[in-house]
């Protein structure tokens, strides 16, 4: 592919996401020769940094985290970096801030390049940023905007943000990022499903008992309370990452691999989700919050700049849901979703559990399972029953037929953000969420949130480092199922 000629403006450019994900991803793109010599990365923040300060910061904080084999490539990368100070709380509206004039001057004369505004900032800044950018005259026909998740905190706020952004950027210029869609295994799920013939005949309620989509994390939320108190696991992870995975598992085969066909099919899945509210929310959802565990503080005692509030006590750091897709293919198949912080292992996976054999002639078998692992090591594992070697009675044991990406393809697995940033530069929105998708997801999430909020009950406590609230186990145990926990 030809290297990309672009000006990338990152709002929130010195924040956690930029420093941990975006800058390293862009460095990798540069190292791989995918950025044209003139491509620039312009961070905007309140930081008051000169270009040289920002380059120094990236040198100090990022260099150690990426493999720098060639110091010249690193120096070239640092040379692409610029910093512009804008104060979003400046008197007289943002556009009045001198930073906008500086940005306009820096960009002027480069209207022929792709211009990308990456908003790595809280969702309430999206609308104001876009308006200011237009007022500053920096939005060109070749401009695109990238919006980080979550878009809003419920359907209404999401619609408002989409409207505000939509006044400046048309839908095809708007890239709503969900970095899970850039993960190798997630893209491979589409290939697995739609480039192989053997799965499709069994990919339905006749053969599949249930699906588990589980993203467990060992990290807590130190230093993130300001964001997390008003987000929680449902908004931070389920509304976007987990529902996107569910869509890819459940969608019908699209007719084409193009930007609209795949997204059209995903929306249909979201629209088919059975609504959960009221007493059903009590039965089919679980929310928890971690308390102190061995060597780990509870959520309320995590280091933060402000003391915990009523919102901190209410927010869930763990969520589990029994979802259902009401259509011909999936009727009656539970989709169990689970995510949480401070759990014993960091693992993201989709587990498709098949039904048991109709009649078993051997003792001790267990149903087949297809495990699509996104983390820690990306791979696909199909658990088949096999005979334990030996001369005595036939003994069965599940053995995995495994595809480990790192060893099957002796190449580096790129980070999700690399792939997605390159897609934005190439103008390919297939792996980004369309407005109707985001809104359909909120439409399903809202009644769950409303029920939780109305209940007045705090989330169920679980000790940090434990397997989560007991009710999450019961959610499956009452139908004789269990979360897939093996290594
Ligand atoms: C982010 C969430 O979107 O995804 C974080 O805001 C979470 O809370 C992260 O930790 C998980 O991403 P990954 O790629 O590490 O699974």
From TrEMBL:
NADP(+) binds at residues 46, 87-88, 149. This is Glucose-6-phosphate 1-dehydrogenase. The active site is at 241 (proton acceptor). Residues 9-188 form the Glucose-6-phosphate dehydrogenase NAD-binding domain. Substrate binds at residues 179, 183, 217, 236, 341. GO terms for biological process: glucose metabolic process; pentose-phosphate shunt, oxidative branch. Belongs to the glucose-6-phosphate dehydrogenase family. Catalyzes the oxidation of glucose 6-phosphate to 6-phosphogluconolactone.
